[in-house]
Design a protein that fits this description.
alpha/beta; TIM Barrel; 10 helices; 10 strands; 16% strand
C-alpha cells in the first residue's frame, strides 16, 4: 500500500547509538561471569532508551533502534542486518567465513554465513520486535528488514549457484513474515539494501524483482526502502568511529531503484539529485542528518538541505538521516534527531 505521508514527516533509518558497554558485557557472558539472559536484559533496556530518545526528540515514525539484534558494534551494522537473520534461516550453516565486501579496501570483510541447502520458511522475529517496541512507544512504529539482495550477496553460496534464485527463495520467506507483520497491526516496514552500487545492472534488476516479490499481497502496511552505500567502521577499535561508504563506486542505479514497489525511498542526502524526474508518485526521505559527521547540524541546516531542490515538491519530502546511527555517541545521535524534528517545525509553522 502506498501511504501518503504528511509533508516533512520525520523518521529514522533503523539502528541507534550502540553503547560501548555492549561488547564488555558480551565478553563477560563468554567468560561465564554473566548469563545470556543478562545480555538480553541489557539489550531490552537499550531498546527502551532508544525509543525514549526518538520520542523525546519528536520523531514521527520510530524503531526500537535494532538494539536487540546485536551484541557489539563490530562489523557494524551488518551483524545486526545479516547474521541475526541468517542464523534463523534453514539453509544456512552456523559456520561463518570472512568475506571481502568492498573493492576499496581488502581488509573490509564480513563473517558471512554459508548457504548449504534450500532456504526455507522461518519466523524472522519481526512480529515480536513490533510488539515489543509498540508496548513502550507512543509514536508510530516501523520495523526494518534486510533486503534479499544484501542477505544473498554477502553470504557464501554452496547451494544455488545463482544469486537470483537465492534472492527469490529469501523473498518467499520475507513475504510470509511481512504478511504476519501486517496482520499484527504494523503500519510500516522498511527494507534495507546498501549494495546496489557494487552490483551489475542484471543483478540489481533481479534484486528489484525479489524485493517486489517479497511485498506482493500487502494491503495495509506501507513499504519504505532504504538505499545507501554503506556505513562501515573497520579497524582494531571499531566502536566510536565514523562509518565509511565502502560501497560507493561512482555508480548509482537510481532509475532501477525507482522500479521498486514502495511508497518511500530513504536515501543519502547528497544523492537526492539522482532521483530528479524518476520518482513518479513516490516520496523521498532525504538523509539530511549526516551520520558520517560528528558535527550536529542545526535545524536550519537540515531544513535547507531538504528544500534546496526546486524539482521536488514539499508533499514528496520526508526527513531522515543518511544511514543508521549505531556508530554515533548517544549525545550526537540525540542532537541529530532533535535537528530533524526542529527542521520539520521550521518548515511546517
Amino acid at each position: 500500500m502506498a501511504t501518503k505521508y504528511p509533508n516533512y514527516t520525520t523518521t529514522v533509518v533503523g539502528s541507534y547509538s550502540v553503547p560501548r558497554w555492549y561488547e564488555a558485557l558480551e565478553k563477560q557472558v563468554e567468560a561465564g561471569a554473566l548469563s545470556k539472559a543478562d545480555m538480553d536484559d541489557a539489550q531490552f533496556r537499550a531498546s527502551q532508551a532508544a525509543i525514549l530518545d526518538q520520542e523525546n526528540a519528536g520523531i514521527d515514525i520510530i524503531t526500537g533502534g535494532e538494539m536487540h539484534r546485536r551484541t557489539n558494534n563490530r562489523h557494524a551494522p551488518p551483524n545486526a542486518m545479516l547474521n541475526f537473520f541468517w542464523q534463523k534461516l534453514p539453509g544456512f550453516s552456523k559456520e561463518t567465513r570472512h568475506k571481502p565486501i568492498s573493492t576499496k579496501d581488502a581488509n573490509v570483510t564480513h563473517p558471512a554465513a554459508v548457504c548449504v541447502g534450500p532456504i526455507e520458511y522461518a519466523d524472522l522475529g519481526l512480529v515480536d520486535e513490533f510488539q515489543m517496541v509498540s508496548r513502550y512507544a507512543h509514536s508510530d512504529v516501523k520495523v526494518t528488514m534486510t533486503g534479499p539482495h544484501m542477505l544473498a550477496k554477502v553470504a557464501w553460496d554452496e547451494h544455488y549457484g545463482d544469486i537470483s534464485k537465492m534472492m527469490q527463495a529469501l523473498a518467499e520467506v520475507m513475504n510470509r513474515n511481512y504478511k504476519d507483520l501486517e496482520a499484527a497491526g504494523c503500519k510500516y516496514v522498511q527494507i534495507d539494501e546498501p549494495l546496489f552500487a557494487i552490483s551489475s545492472d542484471e543483478e540489481v534488476k533481479a534484486a528489484v524483482d525479489a524485493i517486489n516479490q517479497s511485498t506482493e499481497g500487502l494491503t495495509d502496511m506501507s513499504v519504505q526502502v532504504h538505499i545507501c552505500q554503506g556505513n562501515y567502521a573497520v579497524s582494531a577499535d571499531y566502536d566510536g568511529q565514523i562509518g565509511h561508504r565502502y560501497f560507493d563506486t561512482g555508480r548509482y542505479p537510481a532509475k532501477m531503484i525507482c522500479d521498486i514497489n514502495c511508497g518511500v525511498l530513504l536515501v543519502e542526502g547528497d544523492l537526492t539529485p539522482k532521483y530528479e524526474g524518476l520518482l513518479g508518485n513516490k516520496q523521498l526521505a532525504i538523509g539530511a542528518a549526516d551520520v558520517q559527521d560528528f558535527n550536529v547540524e542545526s535545524p536550519e541546516l537540515i531544513a535547507e538541505r531538504v528544500t534546496q531542490y526546486g524539482w521536488l515538491p514539499p508533499e514528496q519530502v520526508l526527513i531522515t538521516s543518511s544511514c543508521g546511527m549505531n556508530h554515533l555517541p548517544r549525545h550526537i545521535a540525540q542532537g541529530k534527531l532533535q535537528a530533524m524534528s526542529g527542521a520539520k517545525r521550521i518548515l511546517t509553522s
